[in-house]
Amino acid sequence: MTKKTTRARWLGRDVGMPAPRMTLCLSEREYFKALQDLGCSHIKDAWLGPNANASTHTLTKGGHVATIVCLQDDNRNPISTCAVLVHEAVHVWQAYTESIGEDKPSSEFEAYGIQSISERLMIEYARRIKRKPRRHVK
Known about the structure:
- The protein is an alpha+beta fold.
- The chain has helices spanning about 30-35, 80-100, 105-130, and strands at about 20-25, 55-60, 65-70.
- The chain is built from three helices and three strands.
- Strand 2 and strand 3 (about 65-70) form a beta hairpin.
- Helix 2 (about 80-100) packs across helix 3 (about 105-130).
- The radius of gyration is 19 Å and the shape is globular.
């Protein structure tokens, strides 16, 4: 009788970082609600910078860092949206490393950190957006 071998099931790695509190806002209304949730409703900054379709806001309160990633969903293609979310994930990473006084994280720590943050942003974006199938123009 031949014994069937089973391949190992590898699970995802986590860098184990206590990343800053993070949320994704897809509208100005959501942004101001997030500020209110953080007790920062007095802040009146624009949710997006001039000519920007995404921005990351970093707030520190009581020694705790919170990041609000704002993204205008303008129906760009999914690859472009992912690229923008990775860009914003880098800003979240920068806020995190600054908050812990890490000036020179190892390249692997940085790569895994940005990957983890990007993944969380993309999962949240996918959960929130229900795209209609694109119609092909003839």
